[in-house]
Design brief:
Elements: E1 2-6, H1 16-30, E2 34-40, E3 47-51, E4 54-59, E5 63-65, E6 68-70, H2 74-79, E7 85-90, H3 93-103, E8 110-114, H4 125-143, E9 146-149, H5 152-157, E10 166-168, H6 187-190, E11 199-203, H7 212-219, E12 225-229, H8 235-241, E13 251-255, H9 262-268, E14 271-274, H10 285-292, E15 297-300, E16 315-318, H11 323-334, H12 337-354, H13 357-377
Parallel strand pairs: 1-2, 1-7, 2-4, 7-8, 8-9, 9-10, 11-12, 11-14, 12-13, 14-15, 15-16
Antiparallel strand pairs: 3-4, 5-6
């Protein structure tokens, strides 16, 4: 099958959607499908390139508005690719809208993966999002032959899709790359963390909705080290917080970590925390990576993310923006090595059962084939 993935950003840009599209596209390519990824250009210049077996078309970006690339030529670029099925990922909203515009003239089915709700901070945010939802988003979803959401609870609580007929297919994780047997290497020594010290890990962009400042506040009264993997606009604030006497020398910034080294970071930690505060965090791929690595996780009790674990089995849930609750849950795991190992084993089993790349793409491939077959018959 000739499949076109449409995504706002793609490798080497980092993010959950980017990781998701790369993983499923590479697996589909291994299965013999012809994959083209249509995305925006970080430097503004249109170009074509190959990443492994993936053809990547980068549409010219004229500017970025509300973290959304404005690529008016994308619809034309999409129409120029012969395809049996288009699969667009939103948000950011404009690329999925351009995909809907493009496929309206081709007769080829369009699937949408609705990763999370659009959200813009500031006084202009709600009216802009409301206008987008009534016009562009409504058109995009109406054009779709099928809508995919990654969890049931997020779909049930999203104003955009709670009344839509959606298919739940979770994000996957590569369970061969993230594995309990991966050695930690020199990660602790590299960042000045003692081998016998308790290490809490955070992996993700350092942006407001990740809740990292609440994680740092939770660390104030705990005798543990915190290692932050990622970069972003919140980094300056977090570095300033890390100079507090109660935190000095215990908060470590790894910055951007290569895909090759990332599994070692999970191997080096005792547990991983995802303290998200917003609906912009609809799933939490970093939590899956930790679970696949055999580590217990602490995640915010918010729609979508809460579905990754059963409370007390693979990890613990915390109230968002509650540093005291985060501290209490971290202390529970740090002080009980047996509980950590038990939860880590269950976490790995859960990922193998529900979230492996192979099993998720099996479900996605079946949905592709059913959608294409229905459209052809129709």
């Amino acid at each position: 099958m000739r499949i076109v993935q449409v995504t706002p950003y793609f490798h080497p840009h980092l993010g959950g959607v980017e990781s998701h599209v790369m993983n499923i596209s590479q697996e589909l390519d291994r299965r013999g499908h012809a994959l083209t990824v249509v995305t925006s250009s970080d430097d503004g210049d249109a170009r074509e390139e190959w990443i492994g077996g993936l053809r990547v078309l980068r549409s010219r970006s004229f500017l970025t508005l509300f973290q959304t690339p404005v690529t008016p030529t994308m619809a034309r670029d999409i129409r120029g690719v012969e395809a049996d099925l288009y699969h667009a990922h939103t948000p950011s909203p404009l690329p999925a809208y351009f995909a809907a515009r493009a496929t309206g003239t081709t007769g080829v089915p369009l699937l949408i993966t609705y990763h999370c709700d659009a959200e813009i901070r500031g006084p202009w945010g709600p009216p802009v999002v409301g206008l987008y939802r009534r016009i562009l988003e409504a058109y995009t979803l109406k054009r779709a032959a099928g809508i995919i959401t990654t969890t049931r609870t997020y779909a049930a609580t999203s104003r955009a899709v709670w009344d839509q007929d959606t298919m739940t297919i979770p994000n996957p994780v590569d369970i061969a790359r993230f594995h309990p047997d991966v050695p930690p290497g020199d990660i602790r020594a590299r960042h000045g963390i003692p081998e016998d010290g308790s290490l809490v890990l955070f992996v993700g962009r350092l942006v407001p909705h990740k809740g990292t400042e609440y994680l740092l506040r939770a660390m104030l009264g705990l005798p543990v080290h915190l290692l932050l993997v990622g970069t972003g606009p919140r980094e300056a604030l977090l570095r300033k917080m890390a100079t507090l006497p109660a935190l000095e020398g215990r908060v470590h910034f790894a910055g951007r970590v290569s895909s090759r080294e990332l599994p070692q970071y999970y191997a080096a930690c005792d547990l991983s925390v995802l303290p998200s505060t917003s609906r912009l965090e609809a799933f939490g791929i970093a939590a899956l990576e930790a679970m696949a690595s055999g580590k217990p996780v602490i995640v915010s009790d918010v729609p979508g993310v809460r579905e990754l674990i059963e409370e007390g089995q693979e990890g613990l849930r915390v109230d968002p923006i509650d540093a005291e609750d985060i501290a209490a849950k971290v202390r529970t795991l740090v002080e009980d090595e047996g509980l950590r190992k038990q939860m880590g084993r269950r976490a790995r089993e859960t990922v193998e059962r529900n979230f492996s790349l192979v099993s998720v793409v099996d479900r996605l491939e079946t949905f592709y084939e059913r959608t294409h077959s229905t459209m052809v018959k129709g």
